[in-house]
Design brief:
The protein is of the alpha/beta class and 482 residues long. It has 18 helices and 15 strands. The protein has helices at residues 2-16, 20-39, 80-86, 107-133, 204-214, 216-219, 249-254, 259-267, 282-289, 317-321, 326-335, 344-358, 374-382, 388-392, 396-400, 407-432, 437-473, 477-481, and strands at 44-49, 56-65, 77-79, 95-100, 140-149, 152-156, 161-164, 180-188, 197-200, 223-231, 235-242, 272-277, 295-302, 307-312, 338-343.
Length: 482
């Protein structure tokens, strides 16, 4: 019987990869719990496994005090006089072990002991797995798919199981039971349910390991991987640099006819890979990182905050941004800089707005437009329109909303403003070609004499038109519609 018990303990220890002493301790704890449950007592129980005979003995443990009045709990304490009856070597402050029979332990107690043993073994197994893999985080290992639990995939690492959550999986991948894959150990969780080792196929370190495996120049250090930005299942950008001027870093990674990079793409189930030459200058590096888009120019907005502004042609804007912003997002991760992309047209409009903000805004009173008339100027001023520039920016609908202004008045305002601005543009041309002084004076006097009757007639006609239009606009709405 003893031999059989030891055989089971040794077999369980080898299967779980744990120390046999841990299993022995689990058995002793289980017997102690079952004995306390059987005797329905609050005494401290302790079990011991005899290594020679295999017999398991249970004891009630009590602390020894000197006087009876010092006994606060009879289940936990005993006087030295009573203790000497059980053990002649008992002393005050020590412990005495009172044997308890285990022959009467029934099925329920045995079931409880079994649960305790399983719990202790699982805890020991988890500690063993944690201690073994905690120092291997970031290492790439080969694992086989054991089963699929909902969105998670369980892998067999040989000595332990590992879990791959959905967020650590590539969108392009599907897994078959028994399939062997290369995965990276992302982290090791000591607490929680299920396997404690978390593996990933979405980490950038997996791509780095694949390049080290496929490209000898990277493995021997001639070509160095400086940065990797990855969105698993979509695209990866990798920046490489050569320490040997005779070795092309990008060509070494691509391989003859693309054989090296194609092997990595097959391993990643068709994920796109952009290989970029690294440069210390962030401006040059940004131009390369945004490939395949062609960049017009790059400027540093804030070197402290690491902020870049990239200008591209209008036809290249969508290509530079990428699908759902993927291209510029990966480029920003690769550089470690914030990137703002603008088209040539957007930049031009931005510069124009900045220039207009710097220039003073002209402000011309309405009185400078003689064709408006005093009555119309009063109506516009009452509505808050006091300058020619603000009047020119108003739409016909906005003008019609002003009380006392109708369609005919709007036409008059439009004509008056147009004539005013036309006069401003023609004034420099007239000043550039002055007539002789005598001819000018003579022509002016003749023009004034000839124009005096016409001006008087025009002013009278304008006043009559304005008064007639104002009277017509003040009539009731029904009459106006007719």
């Amino acid at each position: 019987m003893a031999s059989l018990l030891h055989q089971h303990i040794d077999a369980l220890s080898r299967e779980k990869g744990i120390d046999p002493q841990i299993v022995v301790s689990a058995v002793e704890d289980a017997i102690a719990v079952a004995t306390r449950k059987f005797y329905k007592t609050q005494e401290n129980m302790r079990a011991q496994l005899d290594p020679d005979t295999g017999e398991i003995r249970a004891y009630a443990v009590k602390s020894i005090v000197e006087l009876p009045e010092q006994v606060e709990d009879p289940d936990l304490q005993m006087t030295v006089a009573d203790a000497k009856k059980i053990d002649s070597n008992a002393e005050v402050g020590g412990e005495v072990l009172i044997p308890k029979s285990t022959e009467g332990l029934g099925r329920i107690a045995a079931q409880m002991a079994k649960q305790v043993i399983f719990q202790k073994v699982r805890e020991a197994e988890r500690d063993t797995v944690y201690n073994e893999y905690i120092g291997r985080v970031g290492e790439v290992v080969t694992a086989s798919v054991k089963r699929v639990e909902g969105p998670d995939v369980i892998f067999d690492l040989g000595k332990a199981e590992s879990r791959m959550p959905r967020k650590e999986q590539s969108r392009l991948e599907s897994f078959a039971i028994g399939e062997r894959l290369r995965v990276i150990i992302a982290r090791v969780d000591k607490a929680g349910k299920g396997p404690a080792v978390i593996v990933s196929r979405a980490a950038p370190e997996l791509v780095q390991h694949l390049f080290q495996t496929e490209v000898p120049e990277i493995y021997d250090g001639t070509v160095v991987i400086r940065a990797i930005a990855r969105e698993a299942g979509e695209r990866t950008k990798i920046a490489v640099m050569s320490k040997d001027k005779d070795v092309d870093s990008v060509g070494a990674c691509v391989g003859m006819k693309g054989m090296r990079v194609q092997s990595i793409i097959r391993e990643l189930r068709g994920e796109k890979i952009d290989i970029i030459e690294f440069h210390d200058d962030p401006v040059v590096f940004a131009e390369k990182a945004l490939q395949p888009a062609k960049v017009s120019r790059v400027s540093v907005v804030d070197p402290v905050e690491k902020h870049l502004e990239v200008i591209v042609d209008d036809s290249q804007l969508s290509l530079a941004i990428g699908k759902k912003g993927q291209n510029v997002r990966l480029a920003a991760k690769l550089l470690g800089w914030k990137i703002d992309i603008k088209s040539e047209e957007e930049k031009r409009q931005e510069v124009e707005q900045q220039m207009s903000a710097l220039l003073p805004t002209p402000s011309t009173p309405l009185e400078q437009v003689p064709d408006l008339g005093e009555g119309l100027i009063e109506k516009l001023s009452a509505a808050g329109v006091t300058t020619v520039e603000s009047l020119a920016d108003m739409t016909p609908e906005q003008l019609e909303a002003i009380p006392g202004i109708g369609p005919k008045t709007i036409e008059k305002i439009s004509l008056a403003v147009s004539n005013y601005f036309a006069g401003l543009s023609s004034a420099p041309a007239a000043a550039a070609a002055p007539a002789p002084a005598d001819e000018t004076a003579e022509a002016k006097s003749e023009a004034e004499v000839a124009a005096a009757p016409a001006e008087a007639a025009a002013e009278g006609e304008a006043a009559a038109t304005e008064s007639t239009e104002a009277a017509a606009e003040e009539q009731p709405a029904e009459k106006k519609e007719e």
